[in-house]
Amino acid sequence: QKTINLVGPSTLADPWRRHILDSAQLLPYLSHPHFPENGPVADLGAGAGFPGIVLSILGVPDLTLIESDSRKATFMREAIRITEAPAKVLNKRVEAVTDSFSIIVSRALAPLDKLLILARPILSSPGFCVFPKGEGADRELTVAAERWRFDSVETFTSLTDPDGTILRLTHPHLREPSLA
Predict the structure, then answer these.
(1) How far apart are CA 34 and CA 151, in angstroms?
(2) Is residue 69's pLDDT more than 80?
(3) Are 117 and 139 in contact (CB under 8 A)?
């Protein structure tokens, strides 16, 4: 933590709730009634491996953690080795990734509009995103809806933060420019 700054210093007092449970609570939302067979999952800006490594340990198959910081990628590879989690690490910027994923998760990487810009090129169709957000989730969703359309938007209450929301967004795509 001191060398790489894996997580925010304010979260170290309660790591089980702030990181492990916060990651694990996403598991039920990786199953979608309209997607009976989930394909590969990507964790964008995986950092310390939250939520990706936790989800992999809980049984999510075919999970790739994408992280541009080589020190964090090395840390995650070691955590995966020690826990025997069936995940892999891709040490690249998201913008350089050419693989495609059915499900994209990301925790504490960027505001929703920016997350969608990063996620859309590598999200397969059909596909969906699961993003835990804090108290500003409604505002972020309003801003994103100005540029993005979704087949569906679902919100779920966070188990770890009474002001938090988990967003499940199906098939995000940019709105067509207005001719007006």
Answers:
(1) 11
(2) yes
(3) no
